[in-house]
Design goal:
Strand order of the largest sheet: 8-7-6-9-11-10
Radius of gyration: 24 Å
Largest sheet: 6 strands, mixed
Helix content: 40-55%
Shape: globular
Number of helices: 17
Number of strands: 11
Strand content: 5-15%
Order of helices and strands: HEEEHHEHHEHEEEHHHEHEHHHHEHHH
Length: 377
């Protein structure tokens, strides 16, 4: 006797349809890859991670600067072969199964590429993503800044647990920054390299420069520019914002430099930065030439070159939020576990042609639309 038993004909038909649908779902689940591979594709490189049977905890990474070609108006055409090679190489290096579902998340550089496309009235990025998918077999999503911020906050919660005592976390990358919390977030294309470039353009009329030394008038121009760029921050985040800085420009740049200026021993870690601390450090370093700044803080000139702009950025963010101090947390901000668990992102990966159609018309906001409204692949 069948599972539907000896029901009346109408109910038997209905039961059969239900069983068929369940069988189809079970087959689809059985055919779905049991493992996932995700790629974090930032402005400075690509990092990969995997989860599921046959995978390992390895997280291979390769550096690749995507901002410079974009700033030079070249789009991503020139580095695209290198990106394709990395998406193929990293899983082989980690020896992950070839049949894992794969997905790439492109962040600030990829958003910038989309913005440049809009200025040039040309859908270059969509075509490049289509080629990348065909050659590397990896669908790449251009992630909205809000999702990047959500990943950062989820990562901080997972790693820090109860040690995360502030409402928001601050993540400063190369191209963008995110202030992310459980209920609100703010993003701007003001990462370490992008903000330094803006200052060079504003104060030195060139995209690449040595900022030091700055006089009082130039400092005021820099602060006014940043206040204008962060003008929307209070409205987007609301009142009572408290920040924990997670990224290296602050934890391994600003904080150690301030400690060195104050004569603290290297073992004396700084756990927070006040607005007064930052203003004092800026006053100490702004009038000095770069070589003297490097000597004062014990850093190579290539790293010290970003210190003053990092100080100004950190000071401006604290001023904009109105918080008493910036807390510090040293951790490797790895958003890959959050990406691997993002069901919407992987659903878009399985309906990638539809995603590219929506990306062409909606930009990065295409992520927020519903993948189930696309035709099944």
């Amino acid at each position: 006797m069948s599972a539907c038993g000896s029901w009346p004909r109408a109910r038997t038909i209905l039961c059969g349809l239900v069983l068929a649908a369940g069988w189809g779902w079970a087959v689809a689940q059985a055919q779905a890859p049991a493992c996932r591979v995700a790629f974090d594709m930032g402005s400075s490189g690509v990092r990969a991670a995997a989860t599921g049977p046959g995978t390992t905890a390895a997280m291979p990474r390769r550096d690749l600067d995507l901002l410079q070609p974009l700033w030079q108006g070249q789009s991503l055409e020139e580095p695209l072969p290198q990106v394709i090679a990395l998406l193929q190489e990293l899983p082989r290096q980690a020896r992950w199964p070839a049949d894992c579902a794969r997905l790439g998340a492109g962040f600030s550089a990829w958003r910038l590429a989309w913005q440049l496309d809009g200025q040039l009235d040309g859908p270059r990025l969509v075509g490049q993503l289509r080629r990348l998918h065909a050659q590397a077999q990896v669908p790449v999503l251009v992630m909205p800044a809000q999702i990047e911020g959500r990943y950062a906050y989820e990562t901080a919660q997972r790693v820090l647990g109860p040690r995360l005592s502030t409402s928001h976390v601050l993540d400063i990358g190369g191209g963008s920054l995110q202030l992310a919390g459980a209920a609100s977030s703010f993003s701007a294309e003001l990462g370490q390299k992008a903000w330094h470039r803006r200052l060079c353009l504003a104060l030195r009329s060139t995209p690449s420069c040595v900022l030091q030394a700055l006089d009082a008038a130039e400092l005021q121009r820099a602060r006014t520019l940043l206040d204008e760029l962060l003008a929307d921050l209070p409205a987007q985040l609301g009142a009572g914002v408290r920040l924990t800085a997670l990224s290296r420009p602050v934890t391994r740049g600003v904080a150690p430099a301030l400690a060195r200026l104050r004569g603290a021993a290297p073992s004396q870690a700084v756990s927070s930065l006040s607005l007064g601390d930052l203003r004092w450090a800026i006053g100490q370093l702004a009038p000095l030439p770069l070589q003297e700044v490097a000597a004062r803080v014990g850093a190579a000139p290539t790293f010290a070159a970003y210190l003053l702009s990092d100080l100004l950025l950190t000071e401006g963010l604290l001023r904009a939020t109105g918080g008493p101090a910036l807390q510090l947390a040293e951790l490797d901000l790895n958003i890959l576990p959050a990406l691997l668990a993002d069901e919407r992102a992987f659903a878009w990966g399985s309906r990638y042609p539809c995603y590219l159609e929506r990306l062409a018309s909606e930009g990065p906001a295409a992520y927020f639309s519903d993948p189930s409204t696309c035709r099944a692949p």
